[in-house]
Amino acid sequence: MPDCLSTPSRRLIPQHHISRGRIMDASSTSLLSSKRRELLALDTQKKSLESEAEAIVAELTAELPDGGPPIGISTPLVDDEGFPRADIDIYRARTLRKRFKEIQNDHKDLLRRIDRGLVEVAALMVSFSKSNNDEADSATNDEQQLRSAPKPAPKFDPVTGKWVVKSWDGAVAGVQDGERRRFDDLMGTNDASDYVTGTATGGGINAASDAVTSSPAATTPSNATTESFMRQQQPTEPVVAHLEPFAIIDQVFSNSPASSAGIQEGDVLLQFGPIHSNNHENFSAIAKLVPQIAGDKKNVPIKVRRKREMELGEISDVIDLELWPRVWEGRGLLGCHISKYVDNGRGS
């Protein structure tokens, strides 16, 4: 890492340190998980900037092929007589230096955001620890009072044909699945019909689990991404039967994640994970999703439309690809440039 970007190590808080020894409700866990995902995404962006800066510094400080002095990071780009150096590409040198300064500024901003995020996570952990300890003590006292309270006489259960007693939590004791029923409402809604619903629901969960497991891109999600991963599998809006193009790949860099995934210049983007023409929000949804996926070291399925020449003319194929966003030797996490798709009326 260049000296100008070297910083004390920002150690992100592991998930097991957040949850170990604490009883948290769903909202507390969700908030901490969200903050942790934000920190991981920021850390991935920081590493990407550092990798790009290293490549720029290496080029600026490398000896020229003819043995001449390097371009330099801040040395003059003119010779002793004041003329532009003839042994280097002046435009390339200025472009690299400009980008290097941009990286320095972006890097400082990311470090400030990471430090602020770590402070917020620490504060949440202290707050949740105190509140959950109080709630746990209160719940323990309530349970002790319920267990020591006098119980009503046994009643005949018309559903099972047996005599049953009331458990301390109000459930039915003495019959199978009695914990799912209420002693004070034996003929209520939680009767045998509810068991059928439970079986159907269970099958639905298993079926969804099998579908995720069988997917080529669905390796086991980490704790940090399980909630967002499952939300992506469940449509929150009407399913788009015919995917509309919303972006075009107008540049793909060699040895990049996009190139490795098989993406080609001219590919028209139809879908990027859960993102499509109706929800890409002027590409901001992709910009938010990519660092999270890279931080979790996951693939994202994409769908593109690609033209190919045939004897009778030009046709388009819809192709499914797997893209792995990651830090590489170039800029960004994808290695391609995406522009807004404009329909030129020729069905491109």
TrEMBL record:
Residues 132-155 are annotated as: Disordered. SUPFAM superfamilies: PDZ domain-like (SSF50156). The keyword Hydrolase does not apply. The keyword Chloroplast does not apply. Residues 138-147 have a biased composition (Polar residues). Residues 32-59 form a coiled coil. Residues 41-120 form the Nas2 N-terminal domain. Keywords: Chaperone, Coiled coil. Pfam families: Nas2_N. PANTHER family: 26S PROTEASOME NON-ATPASE REGULATORY SUBUNIT 9. This is Nas2 N-terminal domain-containing protein.
